[in-house]
Amino acid sequence: MANGVRHFKRLLTAELEDLIEDIGLLEEHYRERFAGEEITPYVFQENEALLIREIDSINKFIQIVDGIDTRLYKDTSSLETDLTARAKALVDHLDDPEAVYLFIKRKIDKVHMYLATGEASPGIL
User: CB neighbours (10 Å) of residue 5?
Assistant: First the structure.
């Protein structure tokens, strides 16, 4: 199962990096709206500050994931439980918006579902 835990960790990291890219696209969208005078400078700055904070938190969580020794987990379920708890603790510690935890939790759930589907259907992975 150690391979499964390592695979989970790699997939989650890729999903979190993809999430950061998506947030970056949203930030670019806000820049375009600001440049087109669709939103005020205040709204733009508030939105940008929030997105930067979210990206920073997700990057911190990626560092947590990168630092995990997969040998300490007997299966992906125990890793998921630990990651979920660490995500909640990080968001609480940084006093970040609850959305950051929900974003991370959704990525954990997505990787779980992907692997569960792959394990049920040999040849998919």
Answer: 22
- What's the rounded Cα separation, in Å, for the pair 19 and 57? 12
Kindly indicate the confidence band of residue 121, based on its pLDDT and cuts at 50, 70 and 90.
very low
pLDDT score, position 1: 55
As given in the structure block, the two tokens for residue 79 are: 């890793």
- Residue 35: count other Cβ atoms within 10 Å of its Cβ: 10
Residues 6+ apart with CB under 8 A from 17: 62
CA 47/CA 97 separation, integer angstroms: 13
**Interacting residues of 71 by C-beta distance below 8 A, sequence separation 6+:** 2
Res. 42: pLDDT tops 60: yes
Q: Which residue has the tokens 């949203």?
A: 26
Token representation of residue 23:
């947030």
Q: What is the mean pLDDT of residues 31-44?
A: 96
96: helix, strand or coil: coil
- Per-residue pLDDT at 3: 82
